[in-house]
Amino acid sequence: MTSLRLWVDCLLIKRWHIVMFNKKITVDRIAIVILNWNGANMMRQYLADVIRYSIDEGGVVYVADNASTDDSIAMLHAKFPDCRIIQFDHNWGFAEGYNKALKQIDAQYYILLNSDIRVTHHWLLPLVEFMDNHPEVAACQPKLLSMADNDSFEYAGASGGFIDRYGYPFCRGRIFDTVERDNGQYDVPSSIFWATGAALMIRSADYWAAGGLDGRFFAHNEEIDLCWRLRLMGRKIYCLPESYVYHVGGGTLPKGNPMKTYLNFRNNLTMLYKNLPDSELSHVMFVRFFLDYIAAFQMLILGRSFGDFKAVIKARRAFKRWRRDFASDRSSIQSAAIQTSIPERIVSSILWQYYVKGRKTFVELKI
């Protein structure tokens, strides 16, 4: 009897050790995660401020490295020994790279932060306090200003993102190529449609409840797609201009790169297919067919590279080929939606307002 009891106790102790070994014991309050690919030079310039201005507010800084071929890892070990490193042996892209990194991190809040962001001493606290006090809000972003011109908004997110009926994204402070100067005109917290992936704070519970970023997108439109799913679930997204950061922008694929054009068009069409309600899907896709080909020929006529023209055509063909792969996603998203009418998705065409009506700034829009 004594031997049997000892044997059982040993099994229980062994099982406890296995459980404790595999269990993530500590949970971060705020995990600031920088997804890096050959961004050593950017991190040399900006990572020190991220660490300096985040730790006191409960932030833990991670760098998830997408198989960089520069000296990113060696530089991190040498200059930033307190930074936690997640290292991949393959470049998973922005979307899947973040999914794989965040699966390894237990935290109440995630902050997805680009390596080319310079944070300020007051950047984190307004975000955290707002999220703590507003449980209905799934995600938020700070105001993004340009590193090149500190008095202007930055293209990628400005002061919060919106979208029009046909899937064209724009921001408070940036519509197409018109980027406004920041004169405080958008310095009020605002409910938005999407928050920029350059500096996105999101509850971990909401991130995984919505399914995370769609890794098949690789890069571009993935944060808008995620925010759309969250909005359909009844969750809110905010921009909090009291917090502001400076963004270099451009990243690894600068504007005018055919691959960036391809990813933007393919992913945008896929996002529409996944998230549009049945009542709008056919109409929007019909209109987009013509608008995309008009855009392609406009790129050709106005002197942009033949590569951009081909990228649009290639993107439409790619979407047609893989659309069926997203049928189950669409079914799940639509069946889980508790609202389809989202105020921050304007019912008119931003193309019409911008190019025909001449409304170049957010405050001029009829929404």
Strand and helix layout:
Elements: H1 2-22, E1 28-36, H2 40-52, E2 59-66, H3 72-79, E3 84-88, H4 93-102, E4 107-113, E5 117-119, H5 124-133, E6 137-146, E7 161-163, E8 169-171, E9 174-175, E10 178-179, E11 190-192, E12 199-203, H6 204-209, H7 222-232, E13 236-247, H8 258-275, H9 278-301, H10 306-322, H11 327-336, H12 350-356
Parallel strand pairs: 1-2, 1-4, 2-3, 6-13
Antiparallel strand pairs: 4-12, 5-13, 6-12, 7-8, 9-10, 11-13
Helix pairs in contact: 2-3, 7-8, 8-9, 8-10, 9-10
Describe this structure in words.
Strands 1, 2, 3, 4, 5, 6, 11, 12 and 13 form a 9-stranded mixed beta sheet that branches. The protein has a two-stranded antiparallel sheet with strand order 7-8. The longest helix has 24 residues, at 278-301. It has helices spanning 2-22, 40-52, 72-79, 93-102, 124-133, 204-209, 222-232, 258-275, 278-301, 306-322, 327-336, 350-356; strands at 28-36, 59-66, 84-88, 107-113, 117-119, 137-146, 161-163, 169-171, 174-175, 178-179, 190-192, 199-203, 236-247. It is 42% helix and 20% strand. It is α/β, with parallel strands linked by helices and 367 residues long.
Task: Write a brief caption for the model.
This protein has helices at 2-22, 40-52, 72-79, 93-102, 124-133, 204-209, 222-232, 258-275, 278-301, 306-322, 327-336, 350-356; strands at residues 28-36, 59-66, 84-88, 107-113, 117-119, 137-146, 161-163, 169-171, 174-175, 178-179, 190-192, 199-203, 236-247. The protein has 367 residues and is an alpha/beta fold.
What distance separates the N and C termini?
79 Å
User: What portion of the residues fall into strands of 2 or more residues?
Assistant: 15-25%
Task: Return the structural class.
Answer: alpha/beta
Based on CA atoms alone, the radius of gyration comes out at: 22 Å
Shape, principal axes of CA atoms: globular
Residue stretches low in confidence (pLDDT < 50, at least 5 long) are 1-25
Biggest beta-sheet profile: 9 strands, mixed
Write down the secondary-structure element order.
Answer: HEHEHEHEEHEEEEEEEHHEHHHHH
| Number of H- or I-type helical stretches | 12
The overall pLDDT, averaged over residues, is 91
Helix content: 40-55%
How many distinct beta strands? 13
